[in-house]
Amino acid sequence: MIRMLPLLTLPALAACAPATQSPPQSPGGAPAAAYLALGTEPGWTLEITPARLNYDGDYGSTKIMVPNPGAKPSLNGRTYVTDRLSVVIKTAPCSDGMSDRRFADTVRVVAGGKTLQGCGGKILPPNTLAGTSWIFVSIGGVAVAKDRPTSLQFDGARLSGSAGCNRFSGGYAAADGNLTAGPLMATEMACPGPGMTQEATFFLLMAAPVSLTFTDDGSLILTGSEGRTAVLKRVI
Fold first, then answer.
1. What is the pTM of this model?
2. Which residues of the chain have pLDDT under 50?
3. Which domain holds residue 9?
4. Rounded to an integer, what distance in angstroms lies between the CA atom of residue 173 and that of residue 158?
5. Whether 107 and 166 share a structural domain
6. Does residue 171 share a domain with residue 94?
7. What does the DSSP 8-state code read for residue 205?
8. What separation in angstroms does the CA of 32 have from each of 10, 21, 25, 139, 174?
9. Residues 57 and 112 in one domain
């Protein structure tokens, strides 16, 4: 059986505000003092901490760790230069080449005589919600139950998913940093454990427009007028 939930309206994505200067941040949610970059073909990662540059290349077969020499300003960015490892970071949007995920910085690494291109810094918000898929991390400030799969997909002008129990779907609109959804239709299963509770909290949240916020690690936060939130992680 399918039931109709109260009308929900989802405002559209607002244009991103100009970025302000802040300490380097990792796209994977590492401490603010660390900066993470990555590349593909061959796969590599680079972590920059106040003390060290940690390079892991060739899918893990090459490892270089050197003291951090300190950043030197360069055109639209900064550089780090050592005998074994050099890094050039430019503030320019970058795609990792394996998904539609975009980063704030373009990164060039010279390691062991090999020059590699990649991306780093914070993960940029998607240009549009349409075509993106997410899983829930928490609803109403409570971590979602691990035994109940969750999802939220935006396909064209419709959204669908599960907040831990029933499947739901409906129309949505996103504008000016807000999201409005509905009317939403949902199946009527009863689920054991916390699945029903977290689902009810989500439906209550979505019963009115919510604001959209994207964090530096790419997470999406939906916030209602009473401060209730849902945190989602993008599926790449």
1. 0.75
2. 1, 6-31
3. 2-14+127-234
4. 8
5. no
6. no
7. H
8. 32, 13, 5, 25, 30
9. yes
